[in-house]
Amino acid sequence: MSIKLKVGDKVKVLTGKYRGREGKILQVKPKLSSVVVEGVNIVKTHQKPSATNPNGGVQEKTMPIGISKVAFVTASGKTSRLGFKLNSGGKKVRIARQDGGKEV
Question: How much is the pTM?
Fold first, then answer.
């Protein structure tokens, strides 16, 4: 399975606690079939004091979310699936299916 989403793409969360939220992709994890989206799936982690962090404490961390739970958002604001096609120059480009095959 190939992941068609890239870092920097705007996506919308379809299911779960963060349903309806939109954000940019910060990281793609193909082996886990997941992505890290800014402002989504934030958890609190407890850190012990260490040499790098002498105070320790509770920190917020953004965790990955399953790729099937997000949808690409087009420039017009609609959610869409992505595909590939060859442009006139013979280069492979991503297209948004919802927008009638416009390049992304």
Answer: 0.83
Cα dihedral value 19, 66, 100, 86, nearest 10: 160
pLDDT in tens, 11-22: 999 999 999 999
The first and second tokens of residue 9, run together, are 């793409």
Number of neighbours of residue 81 by Cβ within 10 angstroms: 11
Q: Which residues have C-beta within 8 Å of that of residue 16, sequence separation ≥ 6?
A: 65, 69
Distance between CA atoms of 79 and 47, rounded to whole angstroms? 38
pLDDT in tens, 25-46: 999 999 999 999 999 999 999 9
Beta carbons within 10 angstroms of residue 23's beta carbon: 19
**Beta strand 57-62 pairing with 42-47:** antiparallel
The alpha carbon of 69 is separated from its chain's Cα centroid by a whole number of angstroms, namely 10
Residue 33 neighbours by CB under 8 Å, 6+ apart: 1, 3, 66, 67, 68
